[in-house]
């Protein structure tokens, strides 16, 4: 029970099935406040489904999903979960293509999300400063007025991370941030995430082992919808079952 | 496109307002203050025709607001237009009073004909102009609100939403065709005499309605501009481009859609209310699904997501329609279909895009980008 109170994110016995196929099978996991956690696993291990469950896109058939020990995420919709402070970056970079880089950040910026609040919203100096800070962090300051659709793949990934920063959530869920990046870009992204993790809790799903090593955090290995192993990357890489899952077939 | 966002109206917006305002003043002046023989004289029939186009332009604007900016392809906006028209038509019927064929001071002719003894409850209040004017906005707005609340909460999107909007207008058409509906059935409402005491046959009244339509179009444009240039407008475009992303950053997408859908329906209702006194009739044919589709074509032809283009498209297509239905009536629908295909294939930004691309080319994409070659190769490999 103490684990529940300390935890930021608490999943217990979560099961999701699609037409009989169990995408998540009795998955249990705890992420502590301020922790950064990497999730690895072969294709179809349930990584993205887990993200969908946490962000309210998919309802689990069974199990508990609690945020900050008290909010039952299985009862809330996407917008309410985002309001609670969970931000998500998709596997394929999803930004608002026809909006400028600046407007992408502006839309994500923490603040009232109501219809009429948006209709009468005026950009304050403080908000402008926060947007500038985010733009500087993701190194897109000089492209701020360009439509996001014109950015390169890697820059879109960074813009999406920037949108997460602007949203300032307590927990960031980041799905394959290094997909399609060069080695140099991958290393920079790892450094960026480490910096973000100083002030936020982060869950990163990633295939790229070099990237996970760069992060240097506790690793959870998913396989067929449940947790196979958990520990440091060296520990889990030495685990026989993990080796079998990754190399055995 | 990137530069169009700042709060100003932009060059095309200012030009649009100037043209609408000039037309609103000049056309009535040239009709009333010049003699019939003068080369400058604008005949009353032309005033009426263009007054009609202005109403269509307002309808197109309302469609562009939901379709161009929020991606809601409504194929049922003609229903909101017709409901606004019926609200105004009901008032005009009551204003006929005892001048009808049967001379009944309260009941419209068609009710006397059907042997009805008293006005149905929903006709009460329509003897007052202000009540009818409010209803012309409120009824379409309320219908859009209820319809949207169900559709958007259930996350009906894309082509499914388009189909149920078609079903909505079709169902209303069938309902309004029935005599029991108490709204004139097949024949609808017609034989109007005057509005607010002004004779509808007089040129001065026609000109007044023209100017009012121009004012409504300009006002509607300003309302749309205010909406799309606010942060709410940015949320709408975000919904259009990536709906689920918008949800995940915390916006209740269905509420934004509902707001803009209801506002748009009220604008369409206003357009219908101004249209009816100018054409002198409203009947269930206005609910025909084809009407709504035609209005969407105006927007596509003029340029989706530009507002000015939508209004332009409505006028251009209708001028073409007036000419075509005079010269080659049987070919009009083919011409309209051909135009739609042509615009979709060759002018994705419509007529306005034609003007825009010549003036300012979009910035060259990744030339200034220091993206190393490997990243491109990697990306190819990843895909």
Could you explain how this protein is built, in words?
The complex is a heterodimer of chains A (249) and B (383). Chain A has helices at 2-6, 47-54, 78-84, 101-108, 115-119, 125-137, 153-167, 183-197, 209-215, 233-238, 240-247, and strands spanning 7-18, 21-32, 36-40, 62-67, 71-72, 86-89, 171-175, 201-205, 218-223, 226-231. Chain A is an alpha/beta fold and 249 residues long. A six-stranded mixed β-sheet of chain A has the order 6-7-8-3-9-10, with helices on both faces. A four-stranded antiparallel β-sheet of chain A has the order 2-1-4-5. In chain A, a hairpin with a 2-residue loop joins strand 1 and strand 2. In chain A, helix 4 (101-108) runs parallel beside helix 7 (153-167) and helix 8 runs parallel beside helix 9. Chain A is globular, with a radius of gyration of 18 Å. With 383 residues, chain B is mainly α. Chain B has one domain (2-361). In chain B, strand 2 and strand 3 form a beta hairpin. The longest helix of chain B is centred in the N-terminal third of the chain and has 27 residues, at 44-70. Chain B contains 15 helices and four strands. Chain A binds chain B through residues 55, 57, 77-79, 82-83, 87-88, 90, 94-100, 103, 106-108, 113-115, 118-121, 145-147, 150, 152-155, 163, 167, 179-182, 184-185, and chain B through 1-2, 5, 227, 230-232, 234-235, 237-238, 241-242, 244-253, 255-256, 259, 363, 365-366, 369, 371-372, 374-375, 378-379, 382-383.
Strand order of the largest sheet of chain A: 6-7-8-3-9-10
Percentage of residues in DSSP E strands of chain A? 25-35%
Compute the average pLDDT of chain B.
Answer: 89
Q: Low-confidence segments of chain B, ≥5 residues, pLDDT <50?
A: 1-7, 359-383
Rg of chain A over CA atoms, rounded to whole Å, is 18 Å
Q: Give the overall form of chain A.
A: globular
User: Can you list the strand order of the major beta sheet of chain B?
Assistant: 1-4
């Amino acid at each position: 029970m103490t684990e529940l109170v300390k935890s930021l994110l608490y999943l217990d016995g979560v099961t999701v099935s699609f037409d009989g196929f169990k995408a998540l099978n009795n998955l249990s996991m705890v992420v502590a406040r301020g922790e950064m956690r990497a999730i690895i696993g072969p294709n179809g291990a349930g990584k993205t489904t887990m993200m969908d469950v946490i962000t309210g896109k998919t309802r689990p058939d069974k199990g508990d999903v609690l945020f900050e020990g008290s909010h039952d995420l299985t009862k809330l919709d996407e917008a309410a979960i985002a309001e609670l402070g969970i931000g998500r970056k998709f596997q394929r970079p999803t930004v608002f293509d026809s909006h400028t880089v600046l407007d992408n950040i502006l839309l994500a910026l923490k603040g009232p999300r109501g219809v009429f609040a948006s209709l009468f919203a005026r950009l304050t100096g403080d908000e402008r400063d926060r947007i500038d800070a985010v733009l500087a962090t993701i190194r897109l300051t000089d492209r701020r007025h360009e439509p996001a659709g014109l950015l390169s793949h890697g820059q879109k990934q960074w813009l999406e991370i920037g949108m997460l920063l602007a949203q300032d959530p307590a927990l960031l869920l980041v799905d394959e941030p290094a997909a399609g990046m060069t080695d140099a870009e991958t290393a920079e992204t790892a450094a960026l995430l480490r910096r973000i993790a100083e002030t936020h809790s982060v869950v990163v799903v990633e295939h790229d082992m070099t990237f996970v090593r760069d992060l240097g955090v506790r690793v959870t290995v998913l396989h067929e919808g449940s947790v196979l192993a958990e520990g440091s990357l060296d520990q889990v890489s030495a685990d026989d079952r993990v080796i079998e899952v990754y190399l055995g077939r | 496109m990137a530069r169009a966002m700042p709060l100003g109206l932009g060059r095309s917006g200012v030009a649009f307002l100037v043209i609408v305002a000039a037309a609103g003043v000049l056309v009535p002046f040239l009709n009333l203050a010049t003699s019939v023989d003068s080369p400058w004289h604008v005949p009353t029939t032309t005033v009426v025709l263009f007054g009609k186009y202005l109403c269509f332009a307002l309808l197109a604007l309302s469609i562009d607001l939901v379709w161009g900016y929020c991606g809601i392809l409504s194929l049922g906006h003609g229903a909101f237009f017709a409901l606004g028209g019926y609200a105004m038509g009901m008032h005009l019927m009551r204003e006929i009073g005892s001048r009808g064929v049967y001379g009944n001071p309260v009941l419209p002719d068609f009710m006397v004909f059907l042997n009805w003894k008293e006005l149905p409850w929903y006709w009460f209040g329509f003897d007052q102009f202000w009540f009818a004017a409010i209803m012309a906005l409120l009824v379409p707005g309320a219908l859009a609100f209820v319809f949207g609340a169900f559709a958007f909460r259930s996350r009906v999107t894309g082509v499914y939403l388009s189909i149920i909007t078609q079903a909505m207008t079709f169902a209303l058409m069938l309902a309004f065709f029935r005599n029991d509906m108490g709204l004139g059935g097949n024949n609808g409402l017609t034989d109007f005499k005057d509005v607010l005491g002004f004779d509808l046959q007089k040129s001065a009244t026609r000109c007044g309605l023209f100017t009012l339509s121009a004012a409504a179009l300009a006002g509607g444009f300003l309302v749309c501009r205010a909406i799309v240039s606010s942060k709410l407008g940015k949320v709408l475009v975000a919904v259009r481009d990536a709906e689920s992303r918008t949800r995940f950053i915390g916006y209740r997408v269905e509420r934004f859609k509902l707001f803009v859908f209801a506002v748009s329906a009220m604008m369409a209702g206003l357009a219908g209310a101004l249209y009816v006194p100018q054409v002198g009739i409203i009947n269930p044919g206005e609910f025909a699904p084809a009407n709504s589709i035609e209005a969407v074509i105006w927007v596509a032809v003029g340029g989706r997501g530009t507002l000015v283009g939508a209004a332009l498209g409505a006028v251009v297509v209708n001028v073409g329609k007036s000419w075509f239905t005079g010269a080659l009536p049987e070919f009009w629908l083919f011409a309209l279909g051909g135009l739609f295909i042509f615009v979709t294939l060759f002018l994705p930004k419509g007529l306005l895009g034609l003007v825009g691309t010549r003036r300012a080319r979009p910035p060259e994409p990744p030339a200034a980008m220091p993206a190393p070659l490997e990243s491109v190769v990697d990306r190819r490999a990843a895909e």
